[in-house]
Amino acid sequence: MNDKKIDVLLVDDHAVVRAGFRMLLSSQAFIGQITDVDRGELVCHEYERSHPDVVVMDLSMPGIGGLETIRRLKRQDPAAIILVYSIHDESVYVERAMQAGAKGYVTKNSAAEVLAEAVSKVMQGQRYIDPEILPGLDDFKQPAATLHYGEVVELLSPREFDVFCRTAKGLTAHEVAAELHLGYKTVANYNTTIKNKLNANTTADLANIAVALGIIKP
């Protein structure tokens, strides 16, 4: 990671929980400004006001709840990075949160270092699922390794294919944006679409697919 600190927006309807997670995160050297709100209805406005790098959000809240909040925020900014922290460790909650647009999922029972690691990882563009619940997700969104080259070309638009190839080769979103003369958020949006189309979880999955198809050398 570079030296830029990660600004965080905490979303939880319990003041004590927010205070605890604020203290936990603020103890990490890489965490910058921390703001918080107590319900989903306030998230989009606060996100626009404070421009956080990562939104750390509970699912079980009064009002519109966490899943709908994720969907609304992703409509507002498809590049928004959302990490769910929840009391629920069942796979159905993880899958629904990730399908709604979350980038990671940890439980409130996790050790402090797990949440800190999760924030760091999702900020780097990786997906993160709490290691304690990952074994229960064996069938969760396996990468589409069986695709053929022609199918990938068919699935992806020409611009998506350009982004896919560069991302699979290890270029960051900023580097891809510079090469293709696109905005960073545009590239981030393309990457989200590409992963969805190819049933991939991570950039490493994209690289594996590209290697399997002979698009890049291993």
TrEMBL record:
Ranges where the HTH luxR-type domain occurs: 149-214
* Ranges where the Response regulatory domain occurs: 7-123
Q: Which domain of life is it from?
A: Bacteria
The yes or no answer to whether the keyword DNA-binding is present is yes
Q: Does the keyword tRNA-binding apply?
A: no
> Which key words are in the record?
DNA-binding, Phosphoprotein
Which residues get modified to 4-aspartylphosphate? 58
Record-linked Pfam families: GerE, Response_reg
Picking any one GO molecular function of the record gives: DNA binding
Q: What's one GO BP annotation on this UniProt entry?
A: regulation of DNA-templated transcription
* The protein, known as: DNA binding response regulator, LuxR family
**Organism ancestry:** Bacteria, Pseudomonadati, Pseudomonadota, Gammaproteobacteria, Thiotrichales
